[in-house]
From TrEMBL, chains A, B:
This is Methylmalonyl-CoA epimerase. Residues 5-140 form the VOC domain. The keyword Isomerase applies. Its EC number is 5.1.99.1. Pfam families: Glyoxalase_4. It comes from the Bacteria. It comes from Sphingomonas lacunae. One of its GO terms (biological process) is L-methylmalonyl-CoA metabolic process. GO terms for molecular function: metal ion binding; methylmalonyl-CoA epimerase activity. Belongs to the methylmalonyl-CoA epimerase family. Keywords: Isomerase, Metal-binding. SUPFAM superfamilies: Glyoxalase/Bleomycin resistance protein/Dihydroxybiphenyl dioxygenase. The lineage of its organism: Bacteria, Pseudomonadati, Pseudomonadota, Alphaproteobacteria, Sphingomonadales.
Length: 145, 145
């Protein structure tokens, strides 16, 4: 496998509206997408766009608020009530090839590829096998990069 | 303040050599910098370069191994023995203006600006005031971006 673009950092929050205000008013973000529900992952999501080099798009901050306490992110927030860094997401050209790669290396892929927040297939790999980092792998949206 | 480039994600590890091998052999990184000691922060450090859009430099992964157990990162590893996401670092054009900005907003800046891993001035802001995210602010190296 070849290391892909660092698409986003997932940051969990107990209060999406407060986090959006924080990124806008304190961090100075001018480009924050509309929030939407992603019921497959049990979260409400929006993206803070950060500037990359030379006018390109940088790595996004994905703000995640649990839709209910009994979701994966809901349980994470219970242990980390302030919120914080939740996962790191890298792009790959082919999600099925990437799944086969991680599995061939003995890494625990969490479930089958499913549609993620960017509308392409994604999966997560268990942090235990990834240096403590919950890692999302997503197929690069067609026509991007 | 205007949101700057997401320079790097700090990932702490109990074993830098093993983490370098992981990013090279599992994640497919081809560009990992030489490790060096940063005694001011109590860590040994190297950077995994990730690709940005259109051939630009992407957000880096900064691998951090504590130089001893009684450092800040050493204590963090004691609580998180696998390692994991430790901090997020954004660039600013002027470190002193950024410090004044965060302080004016009631955010706890941890110490005075000091030289960081990229050779420019940095400071950290307390995660309690930053949505649970330990946040590093660094002055953009001259001549970059």
């Amino acid at each position: 496998m070849k290391l892909g673009r660092l698409n986003h950092i997932g940051v969990a929050t107990p209060d999406l509206a407060a986090s959006i205000a924080f990124y806008r008013d304190i961090m100075g973000a001018s480009d924050i997408t509309e929030a939407f529900d992603l019921p497959e992952q049990g979260v409400k999501v929006c993206f803070v766009n950060t500037p990359g080099e030379n006018g390109t798009a940088g790595t996004q901050i994905e703000l995640l608020q649990p839709l209910s306490p009994d979701t994966a992110v809901g349980k994470w927030i219970e242990k980390n009530p302030l919120g914080g860094q939740h996962h790191i997401c890298y792009e790959v050209p082919d999600i099925h090839a990437a799944k086969a790669w991680f599995e061939s290396k003995g890494k625990k892929v969490l479930g089958e590829p499913r549609i993620g927040a960017h509308g392409t297939l994604i999966f997560f790999v268990h942090p235990r096998d990834m240096g403590g980092v919950l890692t999302e792998i997503m197929e690069t949206p067609k026509g991007e990069h």
